[in-house]
């Protein structure tokens, strides 16, 4: 059966669901609707059709539908979320019944297809929790920013944001930041999102020989840049920040980016330099205030300089891992087991006890919301199952509660270290009007070389010290055979 739509096109009802059939019949009565409205209507029908086909069990049908939705950008993701809203919400709202998932493969397979399609369309792993669309082409992000009047938030990371084993910090972003309801809303409303992989993330698999394997990533850090619509860097948040601190930094940078873009060209650089000078002074005042509250240790100084380790240090991989508290908990045991040498203290003028005291002053900045806690639970079904087997939940504390508490503590320390050690250096570069701060690619290379200690010049990311003997043929290096 066919009918004439307002713009005169013939559409077969058999391709529609009952809902779209009713909607089409109603639309067919609007014979006087403008062509523009008809085009919008047809686009909505097309997106809905694509969203339905994207979860088909037939890859030949699902794959092109997913690609088409991805190509439509944020509207494609919005259409998919709208069509599958109830199913996504049921999954996100509460931890699933793992016994049901394990016994009913139909339910498991359906959600697996839906979540995979969702992550592919959005460009981000765990999109069901964040509902964010990420560009992976900077020029496309610039076009979207110009059209919307929003600045760009551009993430740089090791690995890929749409894969589970990206670098540790980017995984923490997905859990603590992007899944946070307030942060997610701010990102959708205030920014055009973009990510780019700096280089593949090193991975390691430890085989225990009894069927158990432990998969981890080693070294690597991430940074969020706030850019104008034409790609000019305005500010950057290096490493992991707690949700509230991250949100404050983002919104401050957004306002600065908009003010910068509204100024006459000859006024912009002076304005940006003054902004970073003010931020540098504010951070140093906060630093001194925090030290006054906690009382400095014998090793502490009020200076924020001399805080980075030379990238020529043979133990750069361990030093890079120690930069962030969250990363060091999962990466340092692996690095130490590999036999790398013990590095010198990264922060020679601060001790861990003082950092912990300062972090405690800002603990609320790193509080996880329910969205983040739920995502943590979904990624740890074995812990939940163990908790269900406990004789008394009143006696045996949920292991995920302990994990969340520890994650908040390490994230709080990451926040103050990143703000006081790394962000100050970035502010200094802008305040000094360094040429490197004007070009995103050059600025990013400077960050990864001087702050994150993983320069492009070292293809081994500090994991293969030149002066360490391994007693392995070719020093344990294995290269893929050339086809």
Descriptive report:
The structure is a single chain. The chain has helices at 18-28, 35-53, 59-71, 74-83, 85-93, 98-103, 105-122, 127-130, 138-148, 168-177, 181-190, 243-262, 265-294, 316-322, 325-337, 352-361, 370-378, 381-389, 399-431, 440-451; strands at 2-4, 10-12, 134-135, 152-158, 192-199, 203-207, 213-217, 223-227, 233-238. By secondary structure, the chain is an alpha/beta fold. It has a domain at 123-451. The protein has a five-stranded mixed sheet, with helices on both faces. Strands 1-2 form a two-stranded antiparallel sheet. A two-stranded antiparallel sheet has the order 6-7. A hairpin with a 5-residue loop joins strand 8 and strand 9. Helix 3 crosses helix 4 and helix 11 (181-190) runs parallel beside helix 12. The longest helix has 33 residues, at 399-431. The chain is globular. The N and C termini lie far apart (54 Å).
């Amino acid at each position: 059966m066919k009918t004439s739509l307002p713009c005169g096109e013939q559409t077969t009802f058999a391709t529609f669901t009952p809902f779209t059939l009713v909607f089409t019949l109603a639309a067919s009565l609007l014979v006087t609707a403008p062509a523009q409205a008809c085009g919008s209507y047809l686009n909505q029908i097309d997106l809905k059709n694509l969203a339905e086909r994207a979860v088909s069990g037939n890859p030949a049908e699902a794959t092109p539908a997913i690609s088409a939705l991805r190509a439509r950008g944020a509207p494609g993701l919005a259409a998919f979320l709208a069509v599958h809203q109830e199913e996504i919400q049921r999954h996100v709202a509460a931890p699933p019944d793992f016994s049901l998932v394990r016994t009913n493969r139909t339910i498991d397979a359906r959600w697996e297809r839906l979540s995979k399609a969702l992550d592919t369309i959005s460009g981000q792993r765990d999109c069901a929790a964040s509902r964010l669309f990420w560009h992976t082409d900077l020029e496309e992000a610039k076009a979207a920013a110009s059209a919307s009047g929003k600045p760009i938030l551009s993430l740089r990371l090791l690995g890929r944001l749409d894969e589970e084993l990206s670098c540790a910090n980017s995984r923490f972003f997905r859990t603590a930041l992007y899944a946070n309801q307030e942060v997610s809303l701010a990102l959708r409303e205030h920014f055009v999102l973009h990510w780019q992989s700096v280089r593949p993330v090193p991975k390691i698999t430890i085989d225990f020989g009894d069927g158990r394997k432990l998969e981890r990533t080693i070294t690597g850090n991430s940074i969020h840049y706030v850019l104008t619509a034409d790609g000019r860097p305005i500010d950057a948040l290096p490493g992991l920040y707690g949700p509230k601190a991250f949100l404050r930094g983002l919104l401050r940078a957004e306002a600065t980016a908009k003010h910068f873009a509204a100024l006459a060209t000859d006024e912009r650089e002076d304005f940006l330099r003054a902004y970073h000078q003010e931020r540098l002074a504010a951070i140093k005042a906060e630093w001194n205030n925090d030290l006054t509250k906690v009382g400095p240790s014998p090793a502490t100084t009020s200076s924020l300089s001399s805080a980075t380790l030379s990238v020529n240090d043979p133990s750069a991989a361990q030093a890079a891992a120690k930069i962030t508290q969250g990363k060091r908990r999962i990466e340092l045991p692996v690095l130490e087991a590999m036999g790398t040498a013990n590095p010198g203290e990264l922060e020679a003028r601060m001790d861990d006890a003082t950092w912990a005291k300062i972090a405690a002053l800002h603990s609320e900045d790193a509080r996880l919301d329910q969205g983040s806690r739920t995502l943590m639970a979904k990624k740890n079904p074995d812990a939940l199952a163990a908790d269900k087997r406990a004789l008394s939940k009143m006696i045996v504390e949920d292991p995920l509660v302990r994990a969340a508490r520890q994650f908040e503590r390490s994230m709080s320390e990451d926040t103050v270290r990143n703000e006081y050690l790394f962000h100050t250096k970035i502010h200094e570069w802008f305040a000094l009007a360094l040429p490197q701060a004007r070009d995103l690619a050059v600025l990013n290379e400077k960050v990864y070389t001087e702050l994150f200690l993983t320069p492009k010049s070292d293809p081994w990311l500090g994991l293969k010290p030149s002066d360490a003997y391994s007693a392995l043929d070719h020093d344990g290096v294995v290269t893929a055979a050339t086809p």
